Amino acid sequence: MPDLSFSFDPAQIEVNKSAASDAASAAAAAATVAASAASDVASAAVQIASALSDIASNATRVAAVSTAASSALLLAASASNAASAATVAAAAASNTASVASVAAATAQSKASDASSAVVALDATVIKSVPGIGSRAVHEIMRTSAGLIKYVYSSVAQA
Description:
- By secondary structure, this protein is of the alpha+beta class.
- The protein has 2 helices and 3 strands; from the N terminus they run E-H-H-E-E.
- Helix 1 (10-58) packs antiparallel against helix 2.
C-alpha cells in the first residue's frame, strides 16, 4: 500500500491572514486618500469657475468672456471626471478589501478542515486492518518546523 502523507503550517495560515488584513487596510486607506484628492480637485474647479464667472461679468468684450467661460466648463468637466475616477478607485479598493477578507476567512476554514481531517484520520483510518501478512504503521507527529504530519504505511511482516 502506498505511503500517504500531508502537512500544513498553522502559523503560516495566521501570517497569510494577517497579510490579507493588512492589504485590505492599505487598500481602504488608499481609497480614502483618492476620494479626498478628488474632492479637493472638485472644490478647486468650483473656485476657478467662480473666479472666471467674476472675470466674465467684468469683461468688456463678449468674445473674451465666451472663451474664458468655455475654458472653465472644460476644467470643471475634467475635475468631475477626476472625481468619478476616484470614486471608481475607492469602490475597487473596497472590493479588494472585501475579497482579501473572504480569502482570509477561506484560508482559516481550510486550515480548520485540514485539522479536522487529521482528527478524523486518527479516529478512523488508524483502526483499519492491514492486508494479510502485513502490519499497519500510523504516525501523527509535529515536525521540527511546527507542521502536523500524518503517515500511513503497510509493511510486510517478517
